[in-house]
Amino acid sequence: MPPGAPNPTLVTFGKLVERDIELVVKSKNKVKNQNISILERKALSELQNNPKILIKPADKGGAVVVQNTKDYLTEAYRQLGDSSFYRQLPHNPVETFVEERDSILNRALEKQWITKKQFEFLKVEYPMTPVFYLLPKIHKRLVNPPDRPIVASKNSLNNNLDYAIARHYKEKNHGSAASLRFIGIERLLPIPRGGNIIKQLLRREAFWINELFTVEPFGMNDSHDLTCFL
User: 212 vs 56, 94, 209, 224, CA distance in Å?
Assistant: First the structure.
């Protein structure tokens, strides 16, 4: 490979391979004592490798649900095809998002809004693409139950941001992080003919900090920076 910055896609692939190898090694090192018979273990293996069915936990209640793979995929494609919530992208935008995130984090570190330790925690070096899947709502109905869409974002671009916000919320004595809720108050549309999207975001952020009066000790913002308007 020629010298230069590492390719994020190859690095992510390498990490996935390393994880799979670790899982294989762990499985081989497990204690051989089993609490099920050979026939039961064989039956579980056949179920696990049967391409015609999917075994998922229920959305609520902790039940185990066996679904027809064809029906599951049909529902998944139906939901993903709803243009009100999803749209197909011409390319993977993660690299662009990483650049924008790094710009924001570098500025926050330079302005001493966050510490070096917080900076390193928030910066997921090689983020993975979140995984979309469905959980059946059998509490609604047992036959052809509706499905709840889930996006698993572990090790994704914003994974550690969620932890940081929840921890801040708790440290400021706002109560349990489980009660934390987010509401979108504005959608920022793409700037006509291009432009500095970071500066536009910072301007709208400054506007809403002032509008909602959220500077400490009245809110979660520790400062009110207007340099983005210069």
Answer: 43, 31, 5, 12
